[in-house]
Amino acid sequence: EVKGLARGAHAPNQYMALATYYGERQKNYLQRAEKEKKEWEQLRPNTVSMAAKYPRPVDSARNAYEYYMAKASESGALEAKYSRMATPAALENAQ
User: Within 13 Å of residue 40, how many CA atoms lie on the same side as its CB?
Assistant: First the structure.
């Protein structure tokens, strides 16, 4: 549904809806990343040895943190893009 709206968006309110969606998505990813970072920091001192099987819980928490941060960055970039496109000046330049 969002992809269809992104393809068919032509009005400022449509771009603003997309910007709002991606802004909320970014907040959600940042909250998830913070949760994983706390878990990663709690598990880090408990790492037993290098011979432990991969992925250790600490590795899984770190990987999840990095994934959520990357997705938050991606969503933030899309939010900024659609926010810029929602301004009347951007629409005038596009025509």
Answer: 15
Give pLDDT tens digits for 40-53: 899 887 766 666 67
Distance between CA atoms of residues 29 and 25, nearest Å: 6
pLDDT in the model for residue 86? 83
- Report the distance separating Cα 13 and Cα 9, nearest Å: 9
Single-letter code of the amino acid located at 24: E
Q: Residue type at 34?
A: E
Residues 6+ apart with CB under 8 A from 90: 84
Whether the CB-CB separation of 18 and 24 falls below 8 Å is answered with no
Distance, CA of 62 to CA of 44 (rounded, Å): 9
